[in-house]
């Protein structure tokens, strides 16, 4: 298994993986999310490869106060084999190297299995409420609400 930075030629395989893992939502266009990430700290967007297949991704970021994790995905046939943990350890190490003191991430409240995964890695539930405000809609329909 190799972990490396995302390359442009990875795009279609990454989006397909995200779709298989249920990470895509109508209000988050994965192609646009990739384009945006490539403009900001692209070295923190990682893929894992076995043979010629992209089997995992993680998108990390640091804005000077907190680090963030997005799009952690492991292909279903490779889950529960430690790949997600390795991806997180690599992302955490890269964030440490840029001076990041704490990582935040968001998990949908309905995703109890993923909550267990992160708790096993030492993440705890912070006593906060996550708020969001969409500044740009990725959806092509104009009749759709603009919030998550």
What would you note in describing this structure?
The chain is an alpha+beta fold and 148 residues long. It has a single domain, classed as Aminopeptidase. Helices cover 30% and strands 21% of the residues. It is built from 4 helices and 5 strands. The chain has helices at 11-20, 30-39, 83-97, 112-120, and strands at residues 2-5, 45-50, 53-62, 67-74, 103-105. The protein has a 5-stranded mixed beta sheet with strand order 1-2-3-4-5. β2 and β3 form a beta hairpin. It is globular. Residues 141-148 have low confidence and may be disordered. Keywords: Acyltransferase, Ribonucleoprotein, Ribosomal protein, Transferase. It comes from Nostoc flagelliforme CCNUN1. This is Ribosomal protein S18 acetylase RimI and related acetyltransferases. GO terms for molecular function: acyltransferase activity, transferring groups other than amino-acyl groups.
Outline the secondary-structure elements.
Blueprint: E1 2-5, H1 11-20, H2 30-39, E2 45-50, E3 53-62, E4 67-74, H3 83-97, E5 103-105, H4 112-120
Parallel strand pairs: 4-5
Antiparallel strand pairs: 1-2, 2-3, 3-4
């Amino acid at each position: 298994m190799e972990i490396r930075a995302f390359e442009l030629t990875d795009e279609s395989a990454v989006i397909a993986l995200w779709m298989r893992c249920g990470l895509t939502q109508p209000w988050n266009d994965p192609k646009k999310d990739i384009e945006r990430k490539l403009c900001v700290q692209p070295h923190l967007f990682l893929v894992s490869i076995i043979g010629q297949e992209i089997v995992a991704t993680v998108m990390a970021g640091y804005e000077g106060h907190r680090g963030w994790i997005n799009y952690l995905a492991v292909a279903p046939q490779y889950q529960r084999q430690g790949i997600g943990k390795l991806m997180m350890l690599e992302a955490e190490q890269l964030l440490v190297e840029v001076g990041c003191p704490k990582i935040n991430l968001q998990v949908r409240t309905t995703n109890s299995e993923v909550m267990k995964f992160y708790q096993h890695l030492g993440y705890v539930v912070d006593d906060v409420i996550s708020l969001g405000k969409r500044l740009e809609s990725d959806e092509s329909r104009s009749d759709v609400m603009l919030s998550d």
